[in-house]
Amino acid sequence: GFGPVVGLPDGLTFQTGITVGDSWWVNGRNRNLSAFYAVEGEATATKLPDPPPAIAQILAGLGKPKQTAQFVAPPAMATRATTVDSVGAAGASDIARISSIVARYRSGMNALVERVGLPHDLPPAVEARLSGRGASGPLKPALVQAFASRGFDCRGQSGVFILRRRTAANHVIDVALDVGTWSRSVTFMFHVRGPGFTATLVPPVSVREDARQYPIGNTANWEQIVANIAAIVDELERTFVAEIEAAVDPAPAWFDPGR
N or C: which end of the chain has fewer CB within 10 A? Predict the structure, then answer.
């Protein structure tokens, strides 16, 4: 092991060191090897310091990581000159403000989607599902075409696409689209991530019905779904993201929550 237990957002804790995981999920068997270590960062730094040489040598032996993520310890875990405030982590009052904003947007989500004036009135779910029988083809091109100009990159995982961009305040916006974990349907999740918090909304993709898990259907239907999602994202960036960023301090330039 590397040393102490480090606290993470939402009450999670990890023992610094190396963990081997082996489990089953709907997409098959998941095996992973994770290394977790702690360093002291500064809010003005553009990157975090390297791990101590002894730990760096161990990590080098594990090979190139598939993905990385960074967390900020809560106040009880802050040490010496590096405090939670100095690295821009959300404190209790920040979390309360964020929770209030999220609750307000969740309760008013259907009204927000109606106000947007979506570009497409999608067909009922049953009709969309029938149009998708036997349909195939890549889903990513439509996402790239709609979101690249908005500053988002697009990465695919097993049954999921993550569209991501970074704000001027170094917070991370994720548009997460589950397109096949359970069935050929889309679930749209919108996240604003910062040190110590994630603000999440799950908007519908249509005003016709509570379309939070909506059939992808054929290619034409998918392109219309993507256009609706893009319109909702534009509105959430203008309103929800602006309110979240007004409630908390900017994040350090090195902040990266991983994918």
Answer: N
